Structures are given as structure tokens and as C-alpha cells.
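agent> Task received from the user: take the single chain below, predict its 3D structure, and emit C-alpha cells. No templates, no multimer pairing.
agent> Plan: (1) validate residues, (2) run structure prediction, (3) serialize to C-alpha cells, (4) report one or two observations.
agent> Step 1 OK, no nonstandard residues flagged.
tool_call: predict_structure(input=
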Amino acid sequence: MINLFGKTLAVLHVGLSFTLMALAAVMYLTGYDLGWKEPQRYFNDPPGKKDETNILTPSELDKAEAGMRKLAVIREEELFQLGSAQVKLATVEPLLGKNHVKGIDVLAKLEGLDAFGKPDTTKATFEIDDFTFDPKAGLLVEDDSPEVNGVKLGFPKLEAPLVKRDFAINRAYSTYLAELRELEEAIEKEQASIKRILTAEEAISRRLIGETAPDGTPLRHKDGSIKLPGWHYLIELETAAQKELKKEIDYLRPLWLKELVDAQLVVARRDLLLHRLHELNDHGYMKQSEFLSKQR
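)
tool_result: status=success, residues=296
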């Protein structure tokens, strides 16, 4: 038992020794300066010169101490600034509150609301004043505005009527918003009407063109018939048929004229034959009217 205890202590001693040696090596190699009795020095000039100077190198503890002192100074300065700001705010707050209330009244008027926040319909139009600007001073405030630290803290000066381009802005925002909604509703109705017209035009175009393939040819059934022939296609077919018919008429017209002339010659010869028979006192012939009536 004692032997085992001694071996254990020896192993722990060796392990702790290696650990401390490794820690010492790391501290030596990394140069992590936690502070020495004599601070390390950094020489600007090569050693051996008479005018050689050196600078003390601060350790990590010295850096931390300097940082804490700087933080304390910054904290004191910020506290001073905060106190000054609170004093200035206490001086300015009453003025800002007055300006805020006045601004709320102006905005309520522009929104078309009364003192109770309800829509005010008593005034259809009213004069809206615009801000006053000075090219040098910028935005001007009211003349009786109090001055704090050389700065006037008043409500902006509203004098000139608000005019944009060729029309005057003299109604509440809610009124313009209602007109905008009415205009949007009218636009939606017109868009719906245009959509119906486009749908009808699409149907007419479809009927004019018919069902066509991507290459423009009409779609056909398996038996070769056209699925939905368009009016343009039918007109083209009719035009082609009229052309063929005209060609046929042009071909048959000379033949018809020839047959008509031949018929007239036959009739003329028959009349001559009948006249000759009449001269020969042959009463057994048939008159032309009787012959034609029997042909019917």
C-alpha cells in the first residue's frame, strides 16, 4: 500500500514538473510580459553610442491599469456631458412641447380633422401656408421665438400659400385621398371595360384567324379536315374558287358563243327550208312556233 502511494506521488510529481516546464517554455517563447521588477527597455539607437536613449516597455498589467484610468476619465467626461444635456433639455422641453402642440393642430387641419379627431366637413377649401426659407439662413422660425444658446427654438414660419405648378393646394389630405380613391375606382371600371373589349377582340381575331399551328398553317384533324377555319382562310378559299370559276367561264365562253352561232345558223337554214317548202305549196310542214313548243 505504501509502495503504491509512493509510486503515485512520483507520477504526479513528474507530470506536474512537465506541465510547469511547458508553461514556462510557453511564457518564455511568447513573451507575455506580466510585469517585472525592472521594466524592459527598448533602445532606439544601437548600443555603444553616447547619445543612446531607451524607452520603457509597459507590461500587460501596466497596459490594463492605463486602460482603466482612461476609462475612468472618459466616464467622468460622459457624466459631465450627460448632466449638461439634461440641464439643456430641461430648458428646452417647455418650448418643444408648445411647438409640438401647435404642430399637431396644423397636421390635424391638413388631415381634415377637428379638435376631437373626427373628420371636419365644414371647410371644403382653406388656405395652406408653406414654409419660409432664406437662401442664407435656411428655414425661418417665428419672430417671437425664444433663443437658447444662440439658437431660436420656435415654430417654423408659415406665410406664403402653398402652390405647386399650375394649381393651388387648398384642401385637406382626406379630401384628396377620397378623390384619389374615386379616380382609382373609375380607372378600375375603365380597365374592366377595356378588358371586356380586348376579350371580344380576341374572340373576333380568333374567329378571323382560326386555330393555327406555330408556322401559321391551319390545324387539321386526323382525316385532314380543318378544325376551326378562320374567315381569312375561307375568304382565300372563296377567292381561289372564284378565280378557278373565272378561268372556266373564260374557257367555256368561246365554245358557248360558237354553239350559239351554230344554233342561229341552223335556225336560219330551217327558216329558209320552210320558206322554200311554202313556195312549193307544201302545207304539211310544221311552223317554227309549233316546233319550239314541242321541244319544251
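agent> Step 4: summary for the user.
Residues 231-290 form one domain.
agent> Done.
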